[in-house]
Amino acid sequence: MSSKLKNELSSTFSKNPYLFSFLFFLILYAICDFKFYETDGVHLLPLHILALIAGIIFESKRITKTWKTAASIGIISFILTFSLGLFLDHISPNSKFDLRLILNLSILAWPIVFFILYVTFSLIFNQRRIVPKLTEDITLMLSISMIYWVIDTGLVKFDNIILRTFIIIIISLSLFSLYNAFNKAFLSDTKKLILSIWSSIIMMFFAIDNLSGFLENGSAVSTNELIQGTYIAIQYFLLGISSIYMIQNFMMLIGFLPSWKMFFFIKYSDTISELKNKHIDRYSDTQVSKSDSKFCILFVSTIFFLNYYYEIVPRQFIIWLSFVTFPFLLMTYNHFLKKKK
Question: Is the same domain home to 116 and 148?
Answer without folding.
Answer: no
